[in-house]
Specification:
globular, Dihydrofolate Reductase, subunit A, alpha/beta, eight-stranded mixed beta sheet, 28% strand
């Protein structure tokens, strides 16, 4: 069965996007060698994307590196949204509830990873008990404000157990 992982690059103060969803700050750090990200990408079977992220700012827009994982990902995606588009989007499915979205993304991923793109979807998966792992790449910048990596609605703490000592911080969600 697929493993659901939330992977994100965050500022040292815990933001994955600047004010208004601005991702331009990330451009400075893209293109650096990252064997951990490469290993993850090789095992991603599907993406589970929030609508804000799906519609959002891509720091590589208009270049060959546009899209998830710097344009390197080419596979199925499920977008969780209350506003599905009228016209189909090639390679993308839309779901209006979390249970359906996660189930379909797991099915599409097979034995690979379902990689979450979007802080709100990650928080919803965590609260629903659907998040298995968290992979954080921390870059040396302080954004001061923006989108937090986990915009949690509940105050209960969640334990994480280290999985690797690679380039990123990779954890298993302890249940």
């Amino acid at each position: 069965m697929a493993t659901v992982v939330y992977s994100a690059t965050a500022s040292a103060d815990g933001f994955i996007a600047g004010p208004g969803g601005d991702m331009s700050w990330l451009s400075e750090f893209l293109g650096e060698e990252n064997p951990t990200a490469d290993r993850l990408l090789s095992q991603v079977g599907s993406l589970l994307i929030g609508r804000t992220t799906f519609d959002g700012d891509d720091p590589n827009a208009g270049t060959d590196a546009e899209g998830p994982f710097g344009g390197q990902y080419d596979g199925p995606a499920v977008v969780l949204t209350h506003r599905p588009p009228d016209a189909p989007v090639p390679g993308v499915e839309f779901a209006t509830d979390l249970t359906t979205a996660v189930s379909r993304a797991r099915e599409l991923a097979g034995d690979g990873y379902v990689n979450i793109l979007g802080a709100d979807v990650a928080a919803q998966c965590l609260e629903a008990g659907e998040l298995d792992e968290v992979l954080v790449f921390v870059v040396p910048v302080l954004l001061g404000e923006g989108t937090r990596m986990f915009p949690r609605r509940r105050g209960a703490s969640v334990r994480l157990a280290p999985l690797t000592s690679e380039q990123g911080h990779w954890y298993r969600v302890v249940r």
